[in-house]
Amino acid sequence: MEQEARVKRYGDLAGDGGSGIAAQVEAAGQRLAARLAAVGSVVAVMSGKGGVGKSVVTANVAAALAASGARVGVVDADINGPSLPLLLGARGRGLVRGPDGLVPAVAPCGVRLVSTDLLVGADGAPVVWKTPTQADSFVWRGAAEASALREFLGGTEWGELDWLFIDLPPGADRVETVLGLLPERAGYVAVAIPSAVAVLSVRRAVALAAGAGRRPLGLIENMAAGSSDEGGAGVAGAAGAAAAAVAAVAADARGDAVKDSAVAGLARTGGLALLGRIPFDPVVAACADAGTPAVLARPEAPGARALAALAARLCATAGRRA
Amino acid sequence: MRFLCVPCDEPMGLERTEGPDAGSLTAVFVCPRCGHSVALLTNPMETQLVQALNLRVGPPAATDAAAASFTHAALADPGPVAPGVAAGACPFAAGAPAGPARGEVPGEPAERVVWTAEADERLRRIPAGVRQMAARAIEEQARRRGVAVVTVELMEQVKQSHGK
What we know:
By secondary structure, chain A is an alpha/beta fold. Chain A is 39% helix and 16% strand. Chain B has five helices and eight strands.
């Protein structure tokens, strides 16, 4: 019986047959690489869990660095739940089309910012993609969001930056997508709260990030119990709690074992540096709602001091001076 | 995706595209050896997938307009994204600083200026195309006056000082 001849397979074919798709993909990659080449440090901020204060941390660290004279940009990668314009006091600033891409908005503190919140029409409107029908949109919605992220990173006229922070959405599903777009030198920090539930989600996200091969810069414990005073004098509150917190921070600075929180445990088992412990501080939340980062509006507050110290430590970790 | 002419065992090349028409894209491929042609027809969901990837099949058409941005063009309810406009089109824009925006000069610490909620609301009423420039101009005036908070009153003063 005569065997049928084997037809060529996809991998046997050269070129793209005239569709131009391969060239478009390559051009997009080159454009992204060129944009990010003008950025000193690229840092993804992730959590794997919502409600841990990741965006508030991003906004305050960015503001602190900008206040020190650094050129800072932020990509609000939470396409469907953007919050950075509110946190940085940049809502309503709008985006402008430049000759070579979108021109980022500039927050009052000088941080450059791009976000879907700056693109949607009505205030507070959800992000809905244009399509004849939303039926079966689950098939392509992820692709649209990834394309938007690619544009925010590579299709925006960032100019020269010292820092570019990418504030990821909650959940681990975007970790690989975003980290895959970043250059190999990019790093990531993970934000967690002292909760076993949160730490479990962060652990998964960290594992995904490790698989993407990007540099772990450290772990941040937000809403930490007690009052962490990394920046100065003792804070108001129970003297005993303050003393214990200061002692814990001092012990951390010495490299000793810190108080055994779930986050500290994750840092140990995950081989991550504990970059900072931000105390639960209502002032930080109030400033966030007001669109004025606490590090600028209320620098004396314990949470603000800890966030400022975090920014300084991040600089040291990334090899830059604050 | 590629098309292979089985009798010739040769890859087919893209000859032309049509549409999208009623959400359907047509891509016609032809075998360079025997001339046999096939058409790939996409349903609206498949068309949307290609568009969501910010890709097109084939060379750009002469009628393709340059979108402000992929994301902006893909949103169902986008806000305005205007080309950068020259100063003079808005009473606040006349005072826009000619140099780089605040925070863009290396070595110069950013002077913090915050906006009240009322002033922020007033700013949002300014057309999007000049809003950012107006914000910069107002903040520059605030710094010159030694003011750390932008209020509606300050905005009025700046507006009146530009004679409009």
